[in-house]
Amino acid sequence: MSDLDNIEQDSKQPVGKIDLPIYDRSGKQVDTIQIDGDDLGGHIRYALLKQAYVITHGNQRQGSARTKSRGMTEGSTRKLYKQKGTGNARAGAARTPIRRGGGHTFAKTRTREAFRTNLTKKMRRLANRNAFLAKLVDGEVKCVVDLEMDAPRTKDMVALLGCLGIDRTCLVALDGSNRNAALSARNVENVDTTRVAQLNAFEMLNHRYLVIDRAGLESFLDGSCFPATKDDSKEVA
Q1: What domains does the chain contain, in order, with CATH numbers?
Q2: pTM given for the model
């Protein structure tokens, strides 16, 4: 049995076909695209989404935290004042761990700590598509006819997001060649951009809304936006 089969199946009703509205730049609905929930996992798999989120979050840790022990801190080792006769509590050197600026009792001295773990390829791909399904079910996917811009202009991006009703954090998925839209969105507060081929469960779950154009959406659903790997070419053969 594979790791994918070991994921606990959630007792949720299966998601059927979803009609996703498509908007123009003024926020007016101009068309609808139908998405089959079975292509995105059938139902929302909360255990898998949490596992993918935690693993991706842990993989972003550098593992380079350092602290200094008592012997590494700067300062004299002499006794601060004599043991008796001052009326104060007895004290040793200023570098002891109980004093501010002193060393740590159990200092972190490793050169590098590894926190990296991996998901299998099938689990990772299913988690990415299932996170997109969760966004669809919650009505948090905003599909636009196109996101092409003639020139970088933050004001145009703010106006577009306002017409779409974006009032919380937002992830804008763009084609790699759409540089003007990426430049237009980089200074907008609570808005991040990513390539359609790099959409993942962690980024989608970290933002309330997902904005994507129709061409990018179709390429994500049919998988044409993802670069072909050696394993994929072998499967096709």
Answers
A1: 17-61+118-236 (3.40.1370.10), 63-114 (no CATH)
A2: 0.78
